[in-house]
Amino acid sequence: xxxxxxxxxxxxxxxxxxxxxxxxxxxxxxxxxxxxxxxxxxxxxxxxxxxxxxxxxxxxxxxxxxxxxxxxxxxxxxxxxxxxxxxxxxxxxxxxxxxxxxxxxxxxxxxxxxxxxxxxxxxxxxxxxxxxxxxxxxxxxx
Length: 142
What we know:
mainly beta; Jelly Rolls; 4-stranded antiparallel beta sheet; 9 strands; elongated
């Protein structure tokens, strides 16, 4: 019978003293909940600043989502940082519901890129006062 190991078990075995990435073994899972109230005047390329999370945190996009009210005829965004807006794309908020990020990766937040943003990619008939609750799950060392 074969024995297979995860990346954590392999790392622990190789080092012999459990010194592996502490975020993955004993990091604290945190969740930010940023609520955005739309003005109704949003257009493509507008930026919505959501939250600043700690550098070196692991942003878990598979556990992150947006709870959206009907934001308008057409309202799509992409999630990112000021220099990289491609963490999650094609987020469609034109009808009410829960929108998953659709990405199953851990993103290490680099120093200087701690601000997480939504960039509007398409907007028409935007509903004023519609709310988007952006729930971001991340793993921190502290």
